[in-house]
Predict the 3D structure of the following.
Amino acid sequence: MIILQANKIERSFSGDVLFDNINLQIDEKDRIALVGRNGAGKSTLLKILVGEEAPTSGDINTKRDLQIAYLAQDSRFESENTIYDEMLAVFSDLRRDEQQLRQMESQMGTLSGESLDKLMNDYDRLSERFRLAGGFTYDSDIRAILNGFKFDQSMWGMRISELSGGQNTRLALARMLLQKPELLVLDEPTNHLDIDTIAWLENYLVNYQGALLIVSHDRYFLDKVATVTVDLNKHSLDRYSGNYSKFMDLKAEKLATETKHFEKQQKEIAKLEEFVQKNIVRASTTKRAQARRKQLAKMDRLDKPTVGQKSANMTFHSDKVSGNVVLTVEEAAIGYHDHVLSEPISLELNKLDAVAIVGPNGIGKTTFIKSVIGQLPFIKGQARFGANVETGYYDQTQSHLTNSNTVLDELWNDFSTTPELDIRNRLGAFLFSGDDVKKSVSMLSGGERARLLLAKLSMENNNFLILDEPTNHLDIDSKEVLEEALIDFDGSLLFVSHDRYFINRIATKVLEISEEGATLYLGDYDYYVEKKAELAFLAQEAVGDFEQEVVSTSQGSTDYQQQKANQKEVRKIARRVEAIETQLEMIDHQEADITEQMTQSNDAMALADLQKELDAIQENQIQLMEEWEELSQLLEKLS
């Protein structure tokens, strides 16, 4: 069933057309991702669809009494209620029904005969309506939603006026989910959310009973939630079946097909025009030439397919080669003054590593990075950089830009010996061309400021880049260009990001920070998620085994044998851990011996054999380290 239909929507500003000829149909339970380049008008289109703005022309028809909830990018609401009371207010009608049911129950003991029969019938009808509307579950729904958005019970008594901007926006989304509208329109809903909360929201929306229309730069999120993708262009809204990744494949196929048809038509036009030119003046062929001319006039000429706006051409490279060990952090504690956010944190980052830092909001990811570069002191421990390490830092607050500078001066002031042409070329690679370079930094959008900061960073030619949320404010196209640039980078990376797609493409390791310290996972984001689930399962199994033993003991069953079996398992794991540690020591010696032999040999064949042997040893070393980490954690839980 169609719940919303937009027909021939146009939006113009002072005669300049932002978009026109926009048609959209939303059915019940649709999951639609709205995509398009930055500046295409996605947010404007959402506002028109929900009635917050009027189109220049066109009309929108909706199902009668359609319930719509709309989350703008920085939605805020003013209220003097506490968090929990505000959530309760969503269910004010239900709570009135609940109060009426209690009153009816109290009357039942005082009535008889027809009056009692009428009361019971009314009670049954109201009770069933109450049940169908979620009257018996609304309290648990509130708790689940608040916990999902990281508002734990200790915060429920906080007044909304005390919340930060990001917390307020999160609460606005939580309230909308509780309202369960028929159409939920979300503009960048993953802003202000950490990775765990985004994953929770994904799972919630996948099972949402209403329709969804979503704008997001989070490709992982769109892949999980969307089943239809609509691509906003200046003169059309193209619909594709499938999530974002499927859309990219289909769009590429469509572009290739359109290009093929265009080129075929151009050849046909050229052939016809050539025939007309050669034969129009000859009496014997003029009729045929006139026929070809008419054919050309009637031809519906295809527009040349375009790939959209020009993409940036970001590149990063290093002037120096660093040593093998780039950064070492041992048993560090991070935080402010005496307030420890996380400890212990240990990390050894080697040359060409790309380490992603993840963890919940507020755990200290940015604090850790600032401590590494020396902007904040460690509460305990220190960071040591290796030989020839030169660091470049991207600050998510973009505080290293001077608002009074022009775009050109922002780079030229820092690199005054570089010719102006080279500065302009570098800015052009980051999509600042023509009069763009004369813009004041204060007038730039968030995405433009991000690209300018990345352009400055690219000119420093450092071999170790430390990046704090580099994809914030970037559109999907710019994110993909940045990914390719960092994949090709010949140095090392340490970065914080909430963009799981970005992490998956860039990271070779993932460092998870929690209150208990840090854990290093030797793989990309998917590996990290899989490994965490595996460890959680092992821990649950261990807890389950332990609980089973407790139950058996309380029943007077074979408690002694079970205790012995548990101790036997602990000893078995401990022996395996010791054996792995011994093997790792042997491997260290073997590595040193082989490396020494390689430095002394000039025989190419011998060097190749030694390299193969070294590769095999190092692969075994990685496998043993992974097994050691898993068993050590399990042993700690069992002990």
User: Anything to note?
Assistant: The mean pLDDT is 88. The CA atoms of residues 202 and 225 lie 6 Å apart.
